[in-house]
Design brief:
Layout lengths: L3 H9 L4 E3 L1 H8 L6 E6 L8 H15 L3 E6 L3 H4 L14 H14 L9 E5 L1 H4 L4 H8 L4 H4 L3 H8 L6 H17 L3 E5 L3 H13 L6 E5 L25 H10 L2 H11 L4 H12 L4 H16 L2 H15 L10 E6 L4 E2 H7 L6 H9 L3 E3 L2 E2 L6 E2 L3 E7 L3 E9 L1
Parallel strand pairs: 2-3, 2-5, 3-4, 5-6, 7-13
Antiparallel strand pairs: 1-6, 8-11, 9-10, 9-12, 12-13
Length: about 400
């Protein structure tokens, strides 16, 4: 095991905040395997690159000899995480949660070492709670403290409803740390309140409070909002090599550096060297090739990554359209649909605002011709090929219902 100073330097890379930093250094100095916890609510069936920011950090801890716990929040998923929400999160059924959990269990080992990973489900202890236990746990927190959360505070002041069960979510997540006796908990910056709750709940159960490490949220392909399947701005770790490579190549040059810093295993000095080469005149596209190839290789292998790069170059530098182009069929109940809504509904963009931005940039084509009218209205009995950016193609067919 590396020295505590070396571990601290390596594990601090790419983090947003470490609380409490001195406590972290003291834990590393104990020279024993630490218990590292990170929770994932199974709200969707597949993991994406946004999740891997945490998973990569967990793998770092594993490589240094620490004990990693991948916690599947099958109980908390029934509540729904209110973090960053302006409205109540829709509830999932037990069947949906079970199905999603099973895929997480398979996909996580594309990054984590299976032999060094502990998989836990928080239903294992929360399902044993009775009403008395839950009341006792809830008594360890106040409504005033809950309203310190920015999302709850905004909803309260604007008169939007906050359900009582939403207050329960951070308390239950905090109790997970008690059940697992975690030394360190990892999470995105949007989880800071919940992670701090773990420290508080542990102390109320006479445990040493965990150190919390927050990591930046990965922006989606649109470069605006965090990566999310619901916004269709994601790269899934189960996407095909062709899809991963193409999606990485579709991001902006400025967003590329954020992806390098949060996703690449290259050293900071190597990334700085790449930045310097671009500043000196190297085409950013060539640097982006390296990132795309690295990510395909991580989830597949080097030969597959080389092949994906070759196919991408042949397909898009020649300006040809893919032969296996996906289709989107829509039956309209009205007289037509606006271009921005059509691009969003077809999945070519993540939002109407992204559609508007891409049209203004001249990045949207219909049958090979640029579209400049962002108020274009398309009527039924329509069939055409839309292209957004360099690699997003879709054949769209509209009919009247």
């Amino acid at each position: 095991m590396e020295s505590s100073q070396e571990q601290f330097k390596e594990l601090s890379r790419g983090t947003d905040e470490i609380l409490i930093e001195q406590d972290f250094q003291d834990l590393l100095a104990l020279s024993r395997p630490l218990r590292i916890k990170a929770g994932f609510d199974p709200t969707a069936p597949d993991l994406h690159l946004g999740h891997t920011v945490l998973l990569n950090k967990m793998r770092q801890f594993q490589n240094l000899g620490h004990e990693v716990i991948f916690l599947i929040g099958d109980f908390t998923a029934l509540i729904g995480d209110p973090s960053g929400r302006s409205v109540l999160r829709p509830a999932l059924s037990k069947e949906e949660i079970t199905n999603n959990s099973s895929t997480y269990n398979e996909q996580v080992f594309k990054i984590l070492d299976k032999d060094k990973t502990i998989i836990e489900f928080n239903s294992n202890w929360m399902n044993k709670f009775n009403a008395s236990d839950l009341i006792k746990l809830a008594s360890k927190q106040t409504v005033a403290r809950m309203l310190e959360r920015d999302d709850f505070d905004k909803r309260f002041k604007s008169g939007k409803p906050i359900s009582i069960h939403e207050f329960i979510y951070p308390i239950v997540q905090g109790y997970d740390s008690v059940a697992l006796r975690s030394d360190i908990e990892l999470g995105g910056t949007d989880q800071k309140f919940n992670l701090l709750m773990g420290r508080h709940i542990q102390q109320s159960f006479q445990q040493d409070p965990q150190v919390i490490i927050t990591l930046p949220l990965l922006k989606g392909l649109d470069g605006e909002k965090k990566m999310s399947k619901s916004l269709n701005n994601f790269i899934g770790i189960t996407d095909t090599p062709k899809e991963i490579f193409g999606k990485v190549m579709s991001i902006s040059d400025s967003l590329m550096w954020s992806y390098f810093e949060l996703l690449s295993f290259k050293s900071i000095s190597e990334i700085d060297t790449l930045k310097s080469s671009v500043e000196s005149g190297k085409n950013p596209r060539d640097v982006k090739y390296q990132l795309a190839e690295e990510l395909v290789e991580r989830f597949y292998n080097s030969q597959t990554a080389i092949k994906a790069k070759k196919e991408f170059i042949e397909l898009f530098r020649q300006g040809s359209m893919p032969s296996d182009m996906p289709q989107f069929k829509l039956e309209l109940t009205s007289d037509g649909i606006g271009i921005r809504h059509l691009l969003k509904n077809s999945g070519l963009v993540g939002s109407s605002s992204e559609a508007l931005r891409m049209i203004k940039q001249g990045a949207v084509k219909l049958n090979g011709e640029n579209i400049s009218d962002f108020d274009l209205f398309i009527t039924p009995n329509f069939e055409g090929v839309f292209q957004v950016g360099k690699r997003r193609f879709k054949k769209i067919i509209l009919s009247k219902k």
